[in-house]
Amino acid sequence: MRGKRLQIHKISNNHPKLNCNPNSDLKHINRPTWVEIHTKAFKQNLKSICSKLNKKTRVMAVVKANAYGHSAVHLSKTALKSGADLLGVSSIEEGIQLRQNKIKSEILILGSIYPLENIHSIIKYNLTPTVSSFLSLKALEQTAKRLKKRIKFHLKVDTGMGRVGISPKEAVRILPQIAKLKNSVLEGIYTHFSVAGTDPKYTKLQLSRFNSVVKLAKKLHLKFAAHAANSSAILKSKESHFDIVRTGLMLYGMYPFYGARKKIDLLPVLAWKTKITFIKRVPKGTSISYSRTYITKKPTIVATLPVGYADGYLRRFSNRAEVLVRGRRCKVIGRVTMDMIMVDVTKVPGVSLGDEVVLIGQQGREKIRVEELANIAGTINYEITCGISYRVPRIIN
Length: 397
Ligand SMILES: Cc1ncc(COP(=O)(O)O)c(C=O)c1O
Description:
This protein is an alpha/beta fold. It folds into two domains: 25-36 and 269-396, Lyase, Ornithine Decarboxylase, Chain A, domain 1 (Beta Barrel), CATH 2.40.37.10; 39-262, TIM Barrel, CATH 3.20.20.10. Helices cover 27% and strands 22% of the residues. It has eleven helices and 20 strands. The chain has helices at residues 39-50, 64-69, 72-81, 92-100, 119-124, 134-146, 168-180, 200-219, 231-236, 370-377, 381-386, and strands at 33-37, 58-62, 86-89, 107-109, 130-131, 151-156, 184-190, 225-227, 244-247, 270-275, 278-282, 287-288, 294-295, 300-305, 322-325, 328-333, 341-344, 356-363, 366-368, 394-396. Strands 1, 10, 11, 14, 15, 16, 17, 18, 19 and 20 form a ten-stranded mixed beta sheet that branches. Strands 4-3-2-9 form a four-stranded parallel beta sheet. It has a four-stranded parallel beta sheet with strand order 5-6-7-8. A hairpin with a 7-residue loop joins strand 16 (328-333) and strand 17 (341-344). Helix 7 (168-180) packs parallel to helix 8.
């Protein structure tokens, strides 16, 4: 690089309009770090998932945690328009957010409804709670009675996940009680698999426990939809499809287990990008970032990017992850800081201030998949996209 002059251009502001809070005075001020959401890819993934199902099987799009970091409101609307039948969220707040954005479909709260005073809001916003205990069933019936309303709910059975739900044994006691309720109406019975992608034997065991509960409920002439399958089970266990499947990860173009790529073609829905906002040439022996974990071994061109662990770009990526600049892989050097990272761009011809940088996604022929970052961090793809923080605007394409 000796002798070559660094090109210092004005930072261009030509990335697409950001999806910021429209009421905010800040809407015209764009820190150049953003996530792009590819609606077409999402629709295509939903189509590919549906092709694995029976025509009668309904699809619940799991859009909790801001659609795994991808924009819950937009993708909920897209999912419902493109073949999904209902939505799954984690909390009452997430359900209310969708209702406030004019989403009318059934919304199942997959997570906790505690404290039970919140049942008022569930009724007010016409959300569907999950009942996981006698206590919550009782509270639901009492509140619905007091408000003179009928409330639909799904019963959760813990067949081996060990998280929430009544046990199959308790189902024997609770189902006859459910059959007698006046204000609470059973709409669904479901369970959740813990190892559907990796352990068919244990999944079969969970399935047989679930089937015994379903059989009993039918014997009591209860009418309900049964559901169990997540993304992994959609691909691995046809017998678990029942009346509804609940898919999250695959909608967003990510694969739920090693080898899933052979079973379904999915397109990434999210790309995470930023721009070079500072660039410098430094001599050999220069210390980069906190704790001096990286010292340049030769003269180096260092680019600074406005993204850090407060955006969800994990500190574990320090000295390990790569980004794409002008279609080339460049190493993150030194510690990831709260708001900035440094990358070695020495080998990128023509590298300039303002160059677009890809953290997740494709540039030229190179790709950085979510899974690559997950491997570096010793985690799963879910955690990487869910962790992209609120301060990174999502741009809808
Ligand atoms: C109860 C429940 N059902 C379905 C899903 C969707 O799982 P996946 O994203 O693997 O499809 C989740 C996700 O964590 C869940 O908690």
